[in-house]
Each structure stands twice: as C-alpha cells, then as structure tokens.
Amino acid sequence: MAMANKPSPETETTLVMADGQPLKKALTRAMRRARLRAFLLVIPLLAFVLVTFALPIGQMLYLSIHNPVFSDYMPRLTAYFNTHPEEGVPNEEGFAALVLDLIDAKKNRTVGRVGTRINYDRAGSSSLFKSSARKAAKFKGPSYKESLLEHRQDWADPKLWNVMRRAANAHTFDFYLAALDFTHDANGNLIKVEPERRIYIMLFLRTFMLSTLIAGLCLLLAFPVSHLLANLPLRYSNLLMILVLLPFWTSLLVRTTSWITLLQSQGVLNDLLVAIGLIGDDGRIQLMYNQFGTIIAMTHILLPFMILPLYSVMKTIPPSYMRAARSLGATPFTAFVKVYFPLTIPGIGAGTLLVFILAIGYYITPALVGGSSGELISNQIAFHMQSSLNWSLAAALGAILLFGVILLYWLYARLIGIDNMKFG
Amino acid sequence: MALPPHASLGEKSWHYCYLIICALIFLFLIAPILVIIPLSFNTEPYFTFTYEMLTFDPKGYSLRWYDNILTFGMAEPDRPRNNAWWDDVWANAAWFHAFKNSLIIGIAATTFATVLGTLAALGLSRPEMPFRRTIMALLISPMIVPLIITATGLFFFYAAAGLAHTYLGIVMAHAMLGIPFVIITVTATLTGFDHSLSRAAASLGASPVTVFHKVILPLILPGVISGALFSFVTSFDEVVVVLFVASYDQQTIPLQMWNGIREQISPTILAVATLLVIVSIALLTVLELLRRRSERLRGLSPG
Q1: Shortest distance, CA A148 to any CA of chain B (angstroms)
Q2: What CATH topology corresponds to A200-420?
Q3: What does the pLDDT read at residue B302?
C-alpha cells in the first residue's frame, strides 16, 4: 500500500501517438485488426469445409448411435415397450399394438424397412414382417395374439421380441457392438456372435496387418531408390524422378487396371512364366483376387508417397558426414548404421505414417483386385452401404476406422507437423 | 555417386548390386504403366501379348479399341461416318458422356477450390492468424480421412439436403477434396514470400487489392497453378464419392472405368487408360515447367 501514492512508472513513460492515444493501446488495436483480417480470409473456406465435410461426418457419427426406423414406423408397439419393461413375449395388448402398427406400416409402405431393421439381428424377419403385414389387415376382432400366432409361429419366439424391444430404442450402441462382433442372446446378455460370423474384428486386424506390411514393403523399396535419387547429380536425378512422378500422377484406376492386366491368370505375368517354362500352361498361378493382388497393387500405388518424403529428407544430409565417418575408420556398414540411417528417421516416420494412413482407408484397389481374402474394412462399409443397406452398421464401422485414422493423423501432426507436408 | 578409385572389390560389387536393385525398383514403378500402352493396340480382345504382336506383325495391331471408345453406347454405331454419326457420338457415346462430365465437374471444382483455398492460405500464412494449427489441421483433413468415410457421410447428408444426383453436389464434394492440395502448395510458396514486398507496395500507396494483384499474385502464381492442377487431378481421378452420390447423368471417366472393370472388362479400358497416361504426362510436364519458373524467379540455381 506504501507504493500507492507513488506514480506508477507506466503512466510516467507512456508513449503516445500523434493523436494523443497511448501507443500500446493503438498497437493492440492494430494487432487485433490484423488478426481479424487474417481470420476473415480463412472464414469462407472454413465455413465451406465445415458444411461439406465436418457436418456430413458428424451426421454419419450420429447415425451410428441413432436409428429411429423402428420407433418411427411402429409407434404403438414402441409406446407399449416403454410402458411394459418386462422381457419376453407380451400379452394381447402388445400384440394388438403390433398388428395395428403392421397395418399402418403396410399402408405407408414402410413395413419393408422395419423388417430389414429387425433382420439385422434375427435372420428371416424381413419376410416374416412382410407376410404378417399382408395378413394383418384381414384379422377380425380383438384376439390378435391368437390370429398372428396362427399365421406364423415365429411370433412366439422370445428372441424376436427382445430384438424388437432393443430396436425400439432409437438411441443405441448396438451397432458398435455388432461392429465388434458382439450381439445379445435371448435373455438380453452380451455375447460374441457365432464363430463363423465373427468377421469384423478379423477384418480390422487384417486391415491393420496388411497396411503395416504394405508400409513396410514401401519403405524397403523406397529406401534405396530415394538414396540414389538424393545422391545423383541433379541432371540424372531429375530424369529418374519422372519414373516416380509419372505413377504418382497417373489415375488410380489406370494403375489398378494395369495390375489386373499383369496379374490375370491369362495375363502378361502368367504368360511370361509359361513362356520361359517355369510353370506349365495348366499350372497358371492365381495372382489376383487374393491378398497377394491387394498387397502388390497397393504397394505399387503407394510407393511414391514413401519415396517423396524420404527423398526430401535424404537431400538435406550432407555427403561429407559419411566421408567423415569413413575417414575416422568406420566400415561402410558402421558408417551407414551409425551416421546416415539415424539422419533419415524423420523421412522414414513421415513416409511410413502417410502410407499407413492412406492404406487403412483403401477401397477401390482391394475391391477390384483383392477378391474376398484381400478385402479390407472399407469394402465391408461399402457392402453395408450399397447391398445390405444396414447403414447404421456401416456408420459404426466407419466411425471406428475414422477414430483410428484421426489418432494416426494426430500423431503425424505432432511428430512431423502438417506444415511439412509437400508434394512433388 | 561414382566410386572412388581406392574402393575395394567388396565395395565395388555391393555398389553394382545396389544399382541393379534400384533399376529393378524403377522397373516395378514404371513397367505396369507402360505395359498397357502396346496392349491397347491389340487386335484380339485379350489382355496379353499375342504372337503377332511379339513378332511385330502389323496384323496384330489395330485401333479397334480406340474406335470402341467412341462407338460404345451409341444408338447406331454402324452408320456411315458423316455428321449425323458424329452427332450420335456427341449425344450418346458413354465414354464421351463421361469425359464431358469429368471435365465440367473438374473445372468447376478446381475453380472453387483454388479461389477459396488461395484466400485461406493467404490468411493462414500470416503470423497473427489465431488458432492457426487447429484450423490448418481441419482444412487438410479431407485428404487424410478415408474416402469411403467421406462418401458415406456425404451420402446421408446429400440425401437429406436434396443434393444427391446433382452436379452441384459432386462439384462441392470434389472442391472439398481438392482444397487440402491448394492449401499445402500455396502455403509452401508463401513461406518463402518476403512480406516486406507487400508492405513496400502499401507504403507507396497501393490499395490491398492492387498489392494482391501486382505483387503477391505474380509471385505465388506457380504455387496456385500447381495447387489447381493437383485439385483438378483429384477430381478427375475420384471415384468413391461419385459412386455413392452420382446417378448415370453425372457419370465420370473413373466411374465408367470402375463399371467397365466390374462388368465387362474389354481392352477398351486399356485404350482409355493409355489416353489418361498421356494426360498425366502432359500434366507432369506443365508442373515441371512451373517448378523451373519459380526457381528462376526466386534466384535459385536451375536444376
């Protein structure tokens, strides 16, 4: 408090602008205006990306935990389930709600979607719903339970009712459970699905393993080539660089087509092997529609993404380092391991992560050359989007994949920095 | 890379081994692309070299698959080739239809991505930009997030917004996918940009718009053009999103190729692929010329 009556050094030495306002204040204002100007330049694009990218993905994530098909199209039965929480086959009241909902659903042509929704968890329900809805309009009088059971005995199955009860909850984590090969048994307990239907965990693992293998192969192939490119005189390396950049710039489908041409059983590679007598004409090797096809085609397609970052790092390593190590008595091998290799690690990290991130989301190439043993998790997402129409499961699988990619992306941003991403 | 004269025998043999390994890897990179070029001139509907092709017999080579690019999908391909025939090509040929769509969508998406992306890169490269890293990470993420996820999201979003099966929807999606490339190339050009140049112009009385047009734009133009090329190629090559949100009317070349490979694969695909390789060679040349120009402008030693 003793300091209070002393004039503070600030007021004493304040610099002012020509118009009398303090310089500090004017500077803060100018800084704020500059920040605002920079931000305004970014705003249109930010808004665009939020609307066309972040919003759709957010919507997809919401769909993976929210599926209102059953509760929207079967409102009476949903209300019945909410007021009667006990499990198992209900009494006449529940059946009455079911029949009236089925009649409405038939009228609104939504019974197919309801049937499909139940069919995810109990096979054969789709036709059950359709036939029962057709029949329901003809039921007379209040003994709905009897009439429906007479039509199809399936309606006495407690598992079916438990499945419907769960489907009536619009908000559910069931699709994530399904995406991890879990389901509910007749009593509502969480169990693993039958061993022959456990495919998603296996596919996630396969996607992970194949991506690791592909990233490893890319690294193995990219390392010597990048080293050569980085150490040749520019005249030659620019020419050789074309061999890397041309595949990089060539359409993905063109490169996949090339591999189909090469790997087919009547294709170029098999013909070559037959011609030089390594295999007989009847012993043509199946090179495509299996994991081998996926691995070789994806390695080829992703190789430039490994070479380019590795090359740009190796370019900055002065050749005198290796000469210095050699002149101090290191063997070529020791000099490479102790001096050169550690310096290339940033490039190895950047390239490997980039290739791995791109590989785990690949869809087109595995779909065309992979067959069933070479398909990745993306192919299952596409299958559920286009064929089985289990969109919520597709969204849940996508969400798990997205989580993995974002984790890797975060790692990439932390270790390498997004600013260092470059092409060509 | 030449070996010193005192290299031992072991070093020498390792050096030649290494060169051979590199040559094989380069072969692996380029051979699959080159092999389809002669095959696209095959007379027979095979995907391999016939005896006639290997002996360079002219009978083994033909342009029938290139002709098929034009006639596939036409109403009356066997009519005499007069103006009416060409009108038929213009109106009905499936590949031509796909080419028109690819070009329209590619140009529209590139324009959109380049304008918005360049503006944003100008903002992002200023040191006073708030939340720079976070926003940058978000704007780059369409490149990182698997296309299948983006396409799934867009499928639901467009169905709800009424943008499915429209050109606008696909142009917006492709612009979004091209934006990361524009941002990356333009910010890379701007890191070497001397900001005192624009301050000097401003102090001499130029308005911000004039500064942009006369000082900034000419210097960052190579980055902008190569970003635009990247975003055009992204759109021209994109198939997953188109597969999910387009109808036949918006069929593009990659989608037509995808359908061709899945349904009835014929060497026509190889003819189209060869034409696309020629397009990529042209793009690569443009990019290389741009790189040399920008190096010359910045006073770096030419390669």
Answers
A1: 36
A2: MetI-like fold (1.10.3720)
A3: 41
